[in-house]
C-alpha cells in the first residue's frame, strides 16, 4: 500500500493527457461575453490516469455531503461532470458542485458534493499536466494512497505529479486542430520579440499553443492567446513557429517558420586582445594546442584556430561560460610540418590580432584512436541515411532532394539511382531520412527506407536493380507514424536478430511518447516484411518508448542496441535500449526532472545541448562514435560493461555540424556534415562533405 508520499513523479513538462473538458477550461479564461461554457462541456466523465476508473459520487447520492471516490466508468449521472465558466465542477447536470468539506486547505481534506454557492472551495483549475487543483488551497485532486481499486477515496493532497493526480476524460477526440496562420514578429529588440499568429480551429476547441524555435519548445500559452513575448539571444538566428494543441492532446501541423535575428544590445567596435602563449604537443598524427585567454570589453565568444592559412576549427562559448583555450587537431598526415595561430572573436565579429605562431611536425604513424581524415565527396543537399554495400561502395539519401546516390569512395564517382516516390518535406527536418540493408541484400537487393509522406512518416522497401530504384517493387511496411515540422526521428538499423529497428520522434507531442499504442516517440522493431515480431513486448511494433526525438541506432558486439536522442533545451542522451523499456520523456529529459523514479530507465550518458544535438552513432570494436550537430564534434566513448567510459572529443569545430556516422568496411568510419539548409527543406541549398575517418 502506497502512502501519500510514495507517488510517481510529476512530469517536467505537460504530458498532454488532459481531458477534452480542459479545452473548455482554457476557453473559459478567455471566453467572450455570452459564451456558454457549461453547456459546451455537459456530462463529461473524468478518468484517473493511473486507475482508468472514473471520478464518482459514492452511491449515486445527490445529497449534500456525499463523498467522492473512483469507480468503474459506467456512464451514470454521478460520473458526469461539467466544468463551468466560474471554475466549478458540477455533477448530475444540476447545481451540485465538487466541494472541499469545511473549506479546508489542509492536505487530506475530504471531497464531497454540495449545493453550488460560488465559494473558493468549489473552484477548480484544470492544468496542462493533467492535474486538477483547488483554487483556494492549491492542492491537487488525489486518489488516496495511489490506489486503483473501486471505491478508493479521492481527497486533496500536495501536488507531486503522481499518476494518481492526473486525470482525463473518456471522450474520444482524435482530430487535431488546423495549422495556425500568418506567423509573424514585431517589437524586435536585442533580447526580446513579440511573436503572433492567427487562430487555429478545432472540432472541440484549441486548448494551447506551443511555441518553438528550431525544434525546441520555448513556451506554451492558452488557446485564447494569439501572441506572446519571447526572450531571444542577441545576434543568434532562430526559426520561430507554433503548433496548436487541443485538450485531448492532438497537435496540429506547425505554422510557417519566421526567422528572427535580434540586434546586439550595445554597439561594440572593440576587438578582444590577442590570445597569448600558444603552445602545442604532438602525439602521432594528432596535435593538441593550448593558449592563454583573451579579454574583451564585452565578452570573448569564439577562438578560431588556423592551420596555415586555413581555419582548422572554432572553439565556442557556452552561454556565459567563456570558450575553452585548448583545441585538438586530429587526422593529420604523418611526418608533416604544420603551423598554427589563434584569433579571438566577440559576438559582433570583432577579431583580435593573431597569437604567436607555433610549428609542429607529426609522427611517422598514427598512435591515436582517431587517425587520418579523407574527404571522399561533397554534396549540395543533406546526406542523411548511409549504408555500405557488399562491394564496399556507398548508398546515401539526400533528405531534401529526395533521391539516393551511389558513391564509389575510392574514385568519388557518383550515380543518382533514383527518386523515392511520395516523399514530402516538412519545412523543417522531415523528408528522405533513414536507409538500411539487411544481411540478405546480396540476394534480394531490398533497400529499406524511412521518409515523410504528405500524411505521415513511413517505412518502405524498394529493390535496387541495375543501379536504379525499381519503384514498381515498392512495399509500404509501416505507415501512420505521425509527422510534424520537427521531431520525425528517422534512423533505420538491422539488428543481429535479423529484425529492422527504427527510431521515431514524438511529432512535437510529448503525450505520444508515453502512449504505447502510438508509433511516435519510440524505437520500433519489425520483421523484414513489415510484420510485427511475435516476441515484441506490447503486441505491436513498439520495442521501447518514452523517447523525444531519437535518431542514432547502433548494435554492440553483445547484440545490445544503443540509441542517441535529442533533448529539448537541457540535455541530450545516449541510451542502452531494453525490450519494453520506458525512457521517461516527457516526464524527464536526460537526468533532469526526477528521472530516477522507478519505472524510467536513465541514460548512460548525457550532453549539454550546446555540446551535443547529436544525431548518428556507430559502434566499431565496441567503441561508440557519436556525431553531433550543434556541438560540431564527434565523441568517442568506450563501451565497458553497460557504461560509456574514456570519453574523448574529436573534430570540435573542425568540420562544423556532423549528422551521420557509420562503420566503414576497413574498420574506419564514414562521416557526413549537415551545415547548411538543415532546417528549411529546400533542396540543393547545402554545401556538405562526406569523409572517411581512419581509426587507430
The mean pLDDT is 89
Second rung of CATH, namely the architecture of the largest domain: 6 Propeller
Strand order of the largest sheet: 4-5-6-7
- Secondary-structure content class: mainly beta
CATH fold name of the largest domain = Neuraminidase
Strand composition percent:
35-45%
Task: Give your account of this protein's structure.
- The chain has 696 residues and is mainly β.
- It has four domains: 4-168, Trefoil (Acidic Fibroblast Growth Factor, subunit A), CATH 2.80.10; 181-260, Immunoglobulin-like (Sandwich), CATH 2.60.40; 276-361, Immunoglobulin-like; 370-695, TolB, C-terminal domain (Neuraminidase, 6 Propeller).
- The protein is built from four helices and 50 strands.
- It has a four-stranded antiparallel beta sheet with strand order 4-5-6-7. A four-stranded antiparallel beta sheet has the order 16-15-18-19.
- A hairpin with a 5-residue loop joins strand 40 and strand 41 (561-566).
- The radius of gyration is 28 Å and the shape is globular.
- Residues 1-41 have low confidence and may be disordered.
Task: Itemize the secondary structure elements and their pairings.
Elements: H1 21-30, H2 37-41, E1 47-48, E2 54-57, E3 68-71, E4 81-83, E5 89-91, E6 96-100, E7 111-115, E8 124-126, E9 132-134, E10 140-143, E11 154-157, E12 167-168, E13 181-186, E14 192-198, E15 206-213, E16 216-222, E17 227-231, E18 238-246, E19 258-260, E20 276-283, E21 286-292, E22 300-307, E23 310-316, E24 326-329, E25 337-346, E26 358-361, E27 370-379, E28 383-388, E29 394-398, E30 403-407, E31 414-419, E32 432-436, H3 441-444, E33 446-452, E34 457-465, E35 468-481, E36 492-494, E37 500-504, H4 510-514, E38 522-526, E39 542-545, E40 549-555, E41 561-566, E42 571-577, E43 605-608, E44 614-620, E45 623-628, E46 633-640, E47 643-650, E48 658-663, E49 669-673, E50 688-695
Antiparallel strand pairs: 1-12, 2-3, 4-5, 5-6, 6-7, 8-9, 10-11, 13-14, 14-17, 15-16, 15-18, 18-19, 20-21, 21-24, 22-23, 22-25, 25-26, 27-50, 28-29, 29-30, 30-31, 32-33, 33-34, 34-35, 36-37, 37-38, 38-39, 40-41, 41-42, 42-43, 44-45, 45-46, 46-47, 48-49, 49-50
Amino acid at each position: 500500500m502506497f502512502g501519500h508520499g510514495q507517488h510517481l513523479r510529476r512530469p517536467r513538462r505537460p504530458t498532454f493527457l488532459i481531458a477534452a473538458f480542459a479545452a473548455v477550461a482554457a476557453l473559459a479564461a478567455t471566453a467572450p461575453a455570452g459564451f456558454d461554457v457549461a453547456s459546451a462541456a455537459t456530462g463529461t466523465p473524468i478518468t484517473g490516469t493511473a486507475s482508468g476508473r472514473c471520478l464518482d459520487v459514492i452511491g449515486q447520492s445527490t445529497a449534500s455531503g456525499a463523498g467522492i471516490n473512483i469507480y468503474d466508468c459506467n456512464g451514470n449521472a454521478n460520473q458526469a461532470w461539467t466544468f463551468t465558466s466560474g471554475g466549478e465542477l458540477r455533477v448530475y447536470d444540476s447545481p451540485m458542485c465538487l466541494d472541499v468539506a469545511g473549506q479546508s486547505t489542509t492536505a487530506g481534506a475530504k471531497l464531497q458534493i454540495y449545493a453550488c454557492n460560488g465559494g473558493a472551495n468549489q473552484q477548480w483549475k484544470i492544468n496542462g499536466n493533467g492535474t486538477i487543483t483547488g483554487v483556494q488551497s492549491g492542492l491537487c485532486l488525489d486518489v488516496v494512497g495511489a490506489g486503483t481499486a473501486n471505491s478508493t477515496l479521492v481527497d486533496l493532497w500536495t501536488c507531486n505529479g503522481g499518476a494518481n493526480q492526473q486525470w482525463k476524460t473518456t471522450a474520444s477526440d482524435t482530430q487535431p486542430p488546423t495549422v495556425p496562420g500568418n506567423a509573424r514578429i514585431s517589437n524586435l529588440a536585442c533580447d526580446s520579440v513579440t511573436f503572433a499568429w492567427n487562430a487555429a480551429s478545432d472540432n472541440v476547441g484549441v486548448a494551447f499553443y506551443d511555441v518553438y524555435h528550431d525544434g525546441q519548445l520555448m513556451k506554451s500559452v492558452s488557446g485564447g492567446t494569439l501572441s506572446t513575448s519571447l526572450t531571444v539571444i542577441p545576434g543568434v538566428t532562430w526559426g520561430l513557429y507554433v503548433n496548436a494543441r487541443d485538450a485531448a492532446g492532438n497537435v496540429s501541423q506547425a505554422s510557417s517558420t519566421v526567422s528572427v535575428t535580434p540586434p546586439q544590445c550595445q554597439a561594440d567596435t572593440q576587438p578582444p586582445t590577442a590570445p597569448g602563449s600558444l603552445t602545442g604537443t604532438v602525439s602521432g598524427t594528432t596535435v593538441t594546442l593550448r593558449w592563454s585567454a583573451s579579454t574583451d570589453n564585452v565578452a570573448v565568444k569564439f577562438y578560431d584556430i588556423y592551420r596555415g592559412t586555413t581555419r582548422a576549427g572554432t572553439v565556442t562559448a557556452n552561454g556565459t561560460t567563456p570558450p575553452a583555450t585548448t583545441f585538438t587537431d586530429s587526422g593529420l598526415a604523418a611526418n608533416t610540418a604544420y603551423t598554427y595561430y589563434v584569433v579571438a572573436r566577440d559576438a559582433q565579429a570583432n577579431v583580435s590580432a593573431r597569437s604567436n605562431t607555433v610549428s609542429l611536425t607529426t609522427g611517422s604513424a598514427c598512435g591515436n584512436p582517431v587517425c587520418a581524415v579523407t574527404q571522399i565527396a561533397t554534396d549540395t543537399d543533406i546526406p542523411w541515411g548511409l549504408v555500405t554495400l557488399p562491394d564496399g561502395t556507398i548508398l546515401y539519401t539526400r533528405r531534401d532532394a529526395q533521391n539516393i546516390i551511389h558513391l564509389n569512395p575510392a574514385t568519388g564517382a557518383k550515380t543518382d539511382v533514383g527518386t523515392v516516390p511520395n516523399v514530402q518535406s516538412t519545412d523543417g527536418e522531415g523528408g528522405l531520412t533513414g536507409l538500411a540493408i539487411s544481411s540478405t541484400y546480396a540476394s534480394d537487393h531490398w533497400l529499406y527506407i524511412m521518409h515523410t509522406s504528405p500524411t505521415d512518416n513511413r517505412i518502405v522497401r524498394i529493390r535496387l536493380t541495375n543501379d536504379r530504384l525499381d519503384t514498381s517493387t515498392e512495399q509500404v511496411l509501416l505507415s501512420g507514424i505521425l509527422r510534424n515540422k520537427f521531431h520525425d526521428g528517422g534512423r533505420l538499423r538491422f539488428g543481429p536478430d535479423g529484425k529492422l529497428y527504427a527510431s521515431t520522434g514524438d511529432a512535437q507531442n510529448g503525450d505520444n511518447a508515453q502512449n504505447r499504442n502510438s508509433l511516435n516517440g519510440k524505437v520500433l522493431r519489425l520483421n523484414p516484411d513489415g510484420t510485427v515480431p511475435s516476441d515484441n513486448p506490447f503486441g505491436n511494433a513498439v520495442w521501447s518508448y518514452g523517447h523525444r526525438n531519437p535518431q542514432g541506432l547502433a548494435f554492440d558486439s553483445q547484440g545490445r542496441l544503443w540509441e542517441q536522442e535529442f533533448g529539448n533545451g537541457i540535455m541530450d542522451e545516449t541510451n542502452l535500449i531494453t525490450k519494453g523499456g520506458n525512457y521517461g520523456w516527457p516526464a524527464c529529459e536526460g537526468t533532469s526532472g526526477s528521472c530516477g523514479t522507478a519505472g524510467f530507465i536513465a541514460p548512460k550518458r548525457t550532453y549539454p545541448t550546446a555540446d551535443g544535438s547529436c544525431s548518428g552513432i556507430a559502434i566499431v570494436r565496441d567503441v561508440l562514435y557519436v556525431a553531433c550537430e550543434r556541438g560540431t564534434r564527434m565523441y568517442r566513448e568506450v563501451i565497458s560493461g553497460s557504461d560509456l567510459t574514456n570519453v574523448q572529443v574529436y573534430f570540435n569545430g573542425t568540420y562544423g555540424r556532423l549528422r551521420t556516422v557509420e562503420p566503414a568496411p576497413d574498420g574506419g568510419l564514414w562521416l557526413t556534415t549537415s551545415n547548411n539548409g538543415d532546417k528549411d527543406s529546400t533542396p540543393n541549398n547545402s554545401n556538405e562533405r562526406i569523409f572517411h575517418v581512419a581509426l587507430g
